[in-house]
Amino acid sequence: QVQLQESGPGLVKPSQTLSLTCTVSGGSITTNAYYWSWIRQSPGKGLEWMGAIASGGSTYYNPSRKSRTSISRDTSKNQFTLQLSSVTPEDAAVYYCARDWQLGGGRLPPFRGQGTQVTVSS
């Protein structure tokens, strides 16, 4: 069964770039028609889909975040990474990586990491 685990700094300073990595085990990120996604959740804004990288390598982004978001992967490590630039306190949230069969969806997919809390503060 596939398992996902987020890693990265829990505290980022304003204007810096947030970088989170998702390590996947129990399945390859390059096989089958899945979207490997990043989703965040905050008390004030609820769930927000940030973007995804498909098994074939194509990337998809939330249009409202596209200018600051980049998703990439390292197939040799079976990992994919989220980078969010110019962060502000509004980017503070629990960030989840997930495997999904669709883009967006407005919910937390069943196959996801446990989530990692990110705080933005100087």
Secondary structure topology:
Elements: E1 3-7, E2 11-12, E3 18-25, E4 35-42, E5 46-54, E6 59-61, E7 69-74, E8 79-84, E9 93-100, E10 111-112, E11 116-120
Parallel strand pairs: 2-11
Antiparallel strand pairs: 1-3, 3-8, 4-5, 4-9, 5-6, 7-8, 9-10, 9-11
Write up this protein.
The chain has 122 residues and is mostly beta strands. 0% of the residues lie in helices and 51% in strands. It is built from no helices and eleven strands. A hairpin with a 4-residue loop joins β7 and β8 (79-84). It is globular, with a radius of gyration of 13 Å. The mean pLDDT is 95.
Q: Indicate the overall shape.
A: globular
From the N-terminal CA to the C-terminal CA, the straight-line distance is 39 Å
Give the overall pLDDT as a whole number.
95
Largest sheet: 7 strands, mixed
Query: Beta-sheet strand percentage?
Result: over 45%
The residue fraction in helices comes out at under 10%
The string of secondary-structure elements, in order, is: EEEEEEEEEEE
Tally the helices: what do you get? 0
Q: Structural class, from helix and strand content?
A: mainly beta
Brief overview:
By secondary structure, this protein is an all-beta fold. The protein is 0% helix and 51% strand. The strands form two sheets. Strands 2, 4, 5, 6, 9, 10 and 11 form a seven-stranded mixed β-sheet that branches.
